[in-house]
Write a structure and sequence with these properties.
The structure is a single chain. The protein is about 90% helix and about 0% strand. By secondary structure, it is mainly α. The protein has two domains: about 90 residues; about 60 residues. The protein starts with a helix and ends with a helix. Pfam families: Filament. It comes from Balaeniceps rex (Shoebill).
């Protein structure tokens, strides 16, 4: 009986030791989880102001976007109305003056382009005149030769009538 009680006591002591180790393991896990929970909670608390700032910034940017979109629509509408008014006022004549950066002289460029086109027009006019004169000479030669043939034919007819 003593040996049996001793074995039972040893089993109970072993169970108590195992239970203590299990309790220690769970306590360690609990403390680790508590530390992790506190760390995550402090991170969340640290990020909340940033989230609030970003939300406010987003709201502000959305408001600015809507405002700019409305302004763009207004400017387009205003521009179209001004263009229609100017077109009806000018009766089809359009005179555009552009303010450009000082490095680019648009009037000089326009004058150069105008001179270039005038030169091209003059060259085309000369070519057409030359072609016209050549064709007129050919036609005159044909008329002259036809006139000579007619005159020759008339002489032959006259000679044949005399005979």
């Amino acid at each position: 009986q003593i040996v049996g009680a001793s074995v039972d006591l040893n089993k109970i002591l072993l169970d108590i030791d195992n239970t203590r180790m299990t309790v220690d393991d769970f306590r360690l896990k609990y403390e680790t989880e508590c530390t992790l929970h506190q760390s995550v909670a402090s991170d969340i608390n640290g990020l909340r102001p940033l989230l609030d700032q970003l939300t406010l910034a987003r709201s502000d940017l959305e408001t600015q976007f809507e405002s700019l979109k409305e302004e763009l629509i207004y400017l387009k509408k205003n521009h179209e109305e001004e263009m229609k008014g100017l077109q009806t006022q000018s009766g089809g004549d359009v005179n555009v003056e552009v303010n450009a950066t000082p490095g680019i002289n648009l009037m000089e460029k326009l004058n150069e382009m105008r001179c270039e086109y005038e030169r091209l027009i003059e060259n085309n006019r000369r070519e057409v005149e030359s072609w016209y004169e050549t064709k007129m000479e050919e036609v005159n030669q044909q008329v002259h030769s036809s006139g000579q043939e007619i005159q020759s034919s008339n002489q032959q007819i006259s000679e044949l009538r005399r005979e």
